[in-house]
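Hi all, long-time lurker, first post. I run a small reading group and we've been trying to get comfortable going from sequence to structure in the token notation. Rather than ask abstract questions, I figured I'd post a concrete chain and ask someone more experienced to write out its structure so we can walk through it together at our next meeting. Sequence below, copied exactly:
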Amino acid sequence: MFCNPHRLSLLVLCSIAWLTTVGCRSTPPAHAIRDPDYAWMAAQIDAGCYAPCSAIMPSAEVPELSGPQPVETLIAWAVAQNPAVEAARKQMEAASYRIPQAASLEDPMLEVNPFLAPMGMGEMRQVIQMGVSQQIPWSGKLQSRAEVAAQEAQRARAQWAAAELAVIEQVKIAYYQLYFVQQAIQISQADRELLLGLQEIAGARFRVGQVNQQDVLRAELEVLELDNQLVRLQQELDTARARLARQLSISPDTPLEAVEQLPAEQIPADLQHLYNLGIAARPELHAQLAEISRARQSVDLARLDYFPDVRLSAMWMGMDMPGNGMNTTMDSGGDALLLGIGVNLPIYRQRLDAGVREAEAQAVASARQYDALRDQTQEEVKDLFAQLQSQQELLRLLREEIVPKADQTFEVSLRGYEVGEVTFLQLVDNRRQLLRYQIATHQLEAQLRQSLARLERIVGGYL
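-- Answer (accepted) --
Happy to help. Here is the structure in token form:
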């Protein structure tokens, strides 16, 4: 049974006004926040509005990462804490939530039209209209939209994997740079002790008149130059620690250290296998493949625009007779129920054709971008493979040939200087060569592992 149409009109209008007021509130209810990370972020922003200092606090130090740590420990920390990785993961989550949105119908529309001045002819008067309508896309459109969103989610997932590999690469590069600087400092400090010993030898020989004062002064100058080098190395150490700390999202003041001895490096020897790995496993290529699939689905969706969407509607028309009072309209027998169906008319072919051509062009562009990235991947694999082969051979020469001979040359010249057969300048020059080769060995060792880290990222982390 329906109540009096005038009262029904007032009730419906009040209900709509109340719903509009509730829906337009500026502050959402607490249950509207479902992501705990979002709730934490919102709380931080709100706190920053009233206490700006708390919003700009630097990253905290992490005592458990202080001291020598293997690179695997730092990688695990970075993957879990690096904000770039977390941002990529949330982008993937956001993209996955777009799939059910794309697959869903639009909200139905409720329409209420009360007549302030009843209309009609004869004894019956039309006092209110209430209707509901639903837009239904042509068959296949919702599925195509969902497929487009699904491919966007796949692309975001691949980009998340790429972000993880990029962070792992940067952690390794920073870690091995830190390792090299640590080794350079240790070698330089040991060389300083050696120079102090040479300075004592030169001073003793000067006091007995075997050499002139030039040897003593030159020894002092060499010590000062090495002190200058140690100052520069200390600055490089702080920079390397800060660079590594940034990837770990911790305070740059954390006393990070690399291990004293790195495990033996494993150099890949099969170039064709690396080519195959790069093409099959590189996340950026997977992301581009997902983009190609998304573009193809967009073409199908654009072609479906040639077909009309359907609009289904139902409307109730409330009728009343003058002087009917509180009698129900159902008793009057004059109410009407209308059912309707409508379609849009896709008659502007120029716009529709342009939409299809745009989607097709975008699909071709995505395919060509994949080809370009595939070729770039092969180039980078070849370049890094050649670097690794060269670095491995140079490192072997330094370890097995150059450094042992330089050390032997210095020992011979030291004994020769003690008996007056070698000048102090020759002794210092041999010492400098030994120091240079020792530092170059550790630098090349770090560079080789950095090249490996870059190659691992390109081939998807599989080495």
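A couple of things your group might point at:
The radius of gyration is 38 Å.
Strands lie at 67-68, 109-119, 125-136, 256-257, 310-320, 336-343.
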